[in-house]
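Hi R.,

Here's the chain you asked about this morning:
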Amino acid sequence: MISIAMATYNGARYLGEQLDSLLSQTVPFEELIICDDCSNDNTLEILERYAKNDHRIKIYVNEKNLGFNKNFQKAIGLCEGVYIALCDQDDIWLPNHLKVLSELLDSGAWLGVGGTKFIDVNGNSLSELTMAQTRNFLWTPDTTNIEVFKFACGYMNPFQGASMMIRKEFLNIALPLPKSAYIYDVWFTLSASLLGVLGYNPEIISLWRRHGRNATNNLLHHSPLRTLFGHIVKPGSVNHRGELLMVMSERMSGLLPQPSQKLLDEALAWNLRRNSIIGRLKNSYDELRFWRSIHRKGLKG
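And the predicted structure, written out as tokens:
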């Protein structure tokens, strides 16, 4: 059973186009759970119109504004499906979206991720690069979950949350979201890759609309060397990575094989070193060595 979890908030402008793309999937879903976070435009009117024509659409309206992460968490928790696809209100899903992701989970992944490209307010392409490529993440069939974890922990998350599908058993670890998880997709990527249960297919399944009012920001190109310099001069962890790793260590105690536990310990030590300039310089050397060995294309770009 496939469920879709959607969080909405004042999304009327693009909502109909997104809903149409969900209803045009080559693989059917059983339910679309929508949690609205107190919209004051005509989002609810649009949702109710669609729900009237499709019994799979179930709408829940929050009594008070929960915010992006908590609203998504609520929608996920209401899903009954074994597979749960995460959905934003303003993107466009290509017809293969659920097919690609469900096949990854069928193959054993607990978190499946597909490729994403960027579009503007009118649906025009903004870049020929995928989101992963703009973040200098060079994926090959030999790329391991360990490499994904290192990249997401030390650099940035290469995947869009709304291009993810999760297996319900993953929620035993992934939820509740840590308070330090600024964006839920970073936490999901780190957790699944450390556990070795992340599956990725670079085939494009989503068009991510960039319109200036997105819940998350994303540039169309990131310079690895600029990020490296930022890591040297800034003492704070990237997106609260250190706090996320501490929660991860508590939740996964006794669950990780020895190599993954060692990797987590190293990541915690890496983040602690960021409190001093000497530590940050040492980390920068490690980051550069990591990028050169795994993401050569990104460094040359």
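Residues 36 and 61 are 5 Å apart (CA to CA).

Let me know if you need anything else.
M.
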